[in-house]
Write a structure and sequence with these properties.
It is a single chain. By secondary structure, this protein is of the alpha+beta class. The protein contains seven helices and seven strands. It has two domains: about 1-205, Nuclear Transport Factor 2, Chain: A (Roll), CATH 3.10.450; about 205-268, Orthogonal Bundle (Arc Repressor Mutant, subunit A). The protein has a seven-stranded mixed sheet with strand order 3-4-5-6-1-2-7. Strand 5 and strand 6 (about 160-175) form a beta hairpin. The radius of gyration is 23 Å and the shape is globular.
């Protein structure tokens, strides 16, 4: 009986070690997957980027949600490829786009079929002065930093990106630096596909988020600082909010918001 107990204990220990080794292999596979994403984005390999996602993968980007391979291809192989590499799938002359993936924390689910990952991102971007067709929408050279809060899933035994959600914290002109940076001035999606041929499948609930801050009494400047967007973007959303609620001003909009929703804790 004692021998049987010892054998069973040994088998249990081997099974535990096998599971722990499998988790370590999964962590490394997820890290490699995210590093591939950064490298492919650096090199303008947008078709390869799409292949990193699960079949029903999801991307949150610029106030929009892109779903499935069709939605992902619409963004990466359409809007981004046309905007950054002029339709070419691969590197182009004079474009700098270094997406460094750093300080990763990966948690594997107990069944080893899904995972969560947080990766800090640090980016150097720019266009060389000798480059033709320099985009007027981008600074000539800039710094950027943020965090990826992603989900991953095993698909056919291979780790894939299930949800990619990048939160940009700041973007700064290279010469001026972070100390002189301003809230992001970029364009957020306002329409969904097919009304916008390159648009998302749905919009994020940014207007609801802004309205909640209005109900808390925050000014446009305070909302912009909390959400890391420009005051111009806040004003644009406020115009849409007032129209949708048929409110005459932000005070009336705040009263409607309080009547329609339950209280929420203040944003830290």
């Amino acid at each position: 009986m004692a021998d049987q107990d010892a054998v069973q204990a040994l088998m249990d220990e081997v099974a535990d070690l096998k599971h722990r080794l499998g988790v370590m292999e999964d962590i490394q596979a997820v890290r490699t997957l995210q590093f591939k994403y950064g490298y492919y984005m650096d090199k303008g390999l947008y078709e390869e980027v799409v292949d990193l996602f699960a079949e029903d993968g999801v991307l949150h980007f610029m106030g929009g949600i892109f779903r499935g391979k069709a939605g992902l291809s619409r963004l990466y192989c359409g809007r981004l490829r046309n905007g950054f590499t002029h339709g070419n799938n691969g590197p182009v002359y004079g474009l700098l786009a270094e997406h460094l993936q750093l300080q990763d924390i990966v948690d594997i689910a107990p069944d080893r079929q899904s995972a969560k990952g947080r990766f800090r991102a640090f980016m150097q971007g720019g266009s060389h002065v000798t480059k033709t067709n320099i985009s007027e929408r981008l600074p000539l050279q800039w710094w950027e930093a943020g965090v990826y809060e992603n989900s991953y899933v095993k698909e056919g035994g291979v780790w894939k990106i299930a949800v990619l959600d990048y939160h940009m914290f700041w973007q700064a002109d290279y010469e001026a630096g972070w100390a002189h940076s301003k809230p992001y001035q970029g364009h957020f999606f306002e329409k969904t596909y097919p009304d916008d041929p390159g648009g998302p499948d749905e919009l994020t609930d940014r207007e609801r988020e802004i309205l909640e801050h209005v109900a808390d009494g925050d000014s446009n400047k305070e909302i912009a600082a909390r959400l890391q967007i420009s005051e111009k973007t806040v004003k644009h959303h406020m115009t849409n909010i007032l129209q949708k609620l048929q409110a005459r001003n932000r005070v009336e909009a705040a009263l409607i918001a309080r009547a329609q929703s339950s209280p929420r804790p203040p944003t830290p």
